[in-house]
Amino acid sequence: MKILVNLGNHLLGKALKELLLRELDKFEVFIPADLKDIDIMHLDFIVADSHTLRKKTSFRQPETKIILIDYGMGEDEISSLLLSYKIDGVLATSTDLPLFKKALQVISKGQIWIDNHKVKALVRHAECAKGVNMDEGLSRKEREIVILISQGLTNREIAFTLCVSEQTVKTHISRIFRKLNVSRRSQLVPLAMKLRVPNAG
Questions:
Q1: Which of 60, 84, 94, 128 is the most exposed place for a label (fewest CB within 10 A)?
Q2: What is the distance between the alpha carbons of residues 50 and 43, in angstroms, rounded to a whole number?
């Protein structure tokens, strides 16, 4: 099996590659500098961080599994990344090698792996966000903006994506906040997850 370690910190990526090569039998481990030597069409796993995921440089094929390394991100950011990218696993930097191997086994069977402490934090985060009134009628444009906000886009990026002015985006966001009685962008993530489900709303 082939693993690509694609971290924003190249030194950390090289160190993780060397560690995995020593410890994982039957695995080939690469970093982006090695890509000229391998067939990227057959990567089984990509180990990435939020920085490399957001760069939108993708070596991923449909069957490739994505493992996100959590450097201590907040629940808002992890929820946003889970919504924006098809992430198959979330591992803390404190994860030891036996647990890393177990995560690879679980993920390779098509299941999702998230560290227990992070699952608990995400559940608590979702509970706190339940206060968002999902039943208020949002326009189609407002729904699009909610989804783009949850993906971590700035007002300027949303304006560019929707071909409108940044001021128009700000007006829509004010209206959305007022309708849903929220005060932070992160509170829109649960609604965005609902809107992304087919036939929702």
A1: 94
A2: 19
